[in-house]
Amino acid sequence: MSRKPVIAGNWKMFKTVPDALTFVQDIRKTAVGTDHIEVVLCPPFTAVTLMSEGLRGSGIYLGAQDVFWEDKGAFTGEVSPVMLKDAGCGYVIIGHSERRQYFGETDEKVNQKVKAVLGHGLTPIMCVGETLDEREAGVTKKVVRIQTTSGLAGLAPEQAAGMVIAYEPVWAIGTGRTASDEDAQEVIAYIRGIIQEQFGAEAAGNVRILYGGSVKPENTTGLMSKSDIDGALVGGASLEVDSFTEIIKRTSETKR
């Protein structure tokens, strides 16, 4: 079954609005090959609206880094799925390990956010992954199973099929350490198996599962050569036009 690869850039808390707009201008000049790859940029909230205008007609999608699960209300500091859709977003990162680690985000909150985002026609990029301690304790699959099943609880099979899931081993995020191609493939294939158990073969065949964790041009081809890996959630390497473009190019060449 053919799944359209996704390369998503998570800018985290980097780039002012002028920086973001310069990036957009520059990446529009490069051959990003978006005909058979979905490229997504996830800037800080401050840059979302202007980037939406800057990306118009480029074939590059806009995403957000987080969301709240209510449409509106007295929730100081939060941003709703309604607001994100209005601002031009098509994707939303949910449950990133930094949200879980620093802001106490639970599997239940991730599930609430996934449902809220799907309810407004946006595509969640739901992150799962184990810490170094959990990996060394041999409980990677247990952790990933709990995060995946809890995060997708209550969804219909067609909703699960339209999801994007990102496997991001926490020990590899921003550390320069990357899971081996084989390790990444093994865990991502395992996640696809969980989807099949929970939602059936069609959903498992359609859901797109990305790898994230110190993805850079040098390791892109090896990761993308694996059959179950459908793209990447890119952190630091998405902040520079040249490295992000090279990741897109190598994915395009490998996934043709």
Descriptive tags:
single chain, 256 residues, alpha/beta, TIM Barrel, eight-stranded parallel beta barrel, 12 helices, 8 strands, 15% strand
In brief:
The chain has one domain: TIM Barrel, CATH 3.20.20. Helices cover 44% and strands 15% of the residues. The protein has helices at 17-27, 48-55, 81-86, 97-103, 107-118, 132-136, 140-151, 157-161, 181-199, 201-206, 217-224, 241-254, and strands spanning 6-10, 38-42, 60-64, 91-94, 123-128, 164-167, 208-212, 231-234.
Polypeptide structure, described:
- The protein has 256 residues and is an alpha/beta fold.
- Helices cover 44% and strands 15% of the residues.
- The protein contains twelve helices and eight strands.
- An eight-stranded parallel beta barrel has the order 1-2-3-4-5-6-7-8, surrounded by six helices.
- The mean pLDDT is 95.
Annotated CATH topology: TIM Barrel
Q: If strands are numbered along the chain, what order do they take across the biggest sheet?
A: 1-2-3-4-5-6-7-8
Give the name of the CATH superfamily: Aldolase class I
The residue fraction in helices comes out at 40-55%
Unreliable stretches, pLDDT < 50, 5 or more residues?
none
The computed structural class is: alpha/beta
Give the CA-based shape.
globular
Distance between the termini: 13 Å
How many domains? The number is 1
- Characterize the largest beta sheet: strand count, sense, and whether it forms a barrel: 8 strands, parallel, barrel
User: What would you say the CATH architecture is?
Assistant: Alpha-Beta Barrel
**Beta strand %:** 5-15%
The total beta strand count reads 8
Mean pLDDT: 95
Text of the CATH class: Alpha Beta
